[in-house]
Amino acid sequence: MKTGMISLALAGLLMASQAMAQEARTLRLGMQGTAGDPQFEGVTEAARIIKEKSGGRLTLEIFPNSQLGTFTEMMEQVTLGELDFTLNPFGGMDAWVPRAVLASTAYVVGDFDHLQKIIASDWGKGIVDEMRTEHKWRMVDSWYFGTRHTTAKKPIEKPADFAGMKLRVPNSAPLLTWAKAMGASPTPVAFAEVYLALQTNQVDGQENPLPIIDSMKFTEVQSHVSLTGHLVQDQVILMSEDTWNALEPADQKVVMEAFEAGGALNDKLVSDKEANLVSDFRERGITVVEPDKAAFQEAMKPVYADLDAKFGADTVKTLLDLR
């Protein structure tokens, strides 16, 4: 009798351990960012919380530095359910949801808080819903990536200061459009070659978020940093809809809370770094220019008119009014 009870107890323990093993799951996140940058620190914090709050049943494995492919390839992997998470800018969703381009058009977004209002608006929710229903990308959170500014060997205080400048911009339609609207001559240069292009005057200036301007040492060959603030960018945490549906509601809650906490850490790291760099540049003898953005936004009005014609009258104004 005692032997039978022991056997039953052992069988129960075995079944329980098998059930726990079945529930255990490793989630995978692929990203372009590198170890040590704010986004990596944020997802690392999210991974810690996921493991802690799930009692170790859920773990998040992080693949930085484009180990799993380009951002386009990782997006496709999320659609297919081969990858659980990736990151991509909200405005960068325009390749799949064309009207999202407005969120990456110069001076439409005033700051990160404004971007959050745009995403939470009916217009933004429509894009979020289309991402989920058409591509199986569930938006978990939006994290601050940075605001893009301009460097040159002269101050940039008004659109006329861009006239005739050979300005390096990425091969991105919204940024090419912005450069042309300012009167600059957009010049394509591979990112790794920008420093040399600036040093040899192949290009007269470039634009990037302040942390990148600093890390790439562009101020060694550019005397002025002009805070043009033409584009505010985020990184959206995208989750496979199949993965989301496979999780129990309690685990869905754990995931949301973890990425919210990771986002708070990321946002603080980026904001603090940007604020510190402005004073740091000045201490290093670099001239930091704070232009009036109104004149730059005025120069974008023909671009806004084209976007309204394509996506609906007063669409740009509707988004601007959310500030």
UniProtKB/TrEMBL annotation:
Signal sequence extent: 1-21
One of the GO BP terms on file: transmembrane transport
Gene3D superfamilies reported in the protein's UniProt record: Bacterial extracellular solute-binding protein, family 7 (3.40.190.170)
Keywords: Signal, Transport
GO CC annotations, alphabetized: outer membrane-bounded periplasmic space
Record's keyword annotation contains Transport: yes
Subcellular location: Cell envelope
Record-linked InterPro entries: DctP_fam (IPR018389), TRAP_DctP (IPR004682), TRAP_DctP_sf (IPR038404)
CDD domains: PBP2_TRAP_Siap
Family to which the UniProt record says this protein belongs: Belongs to the bacterial solute-binding protein 7 family.
Protein name stated in the entry: DctP family TRAP transporter solute-binding subunit
Organism listed in the record: Rhizobium meliloti (Ensifer meliloti)
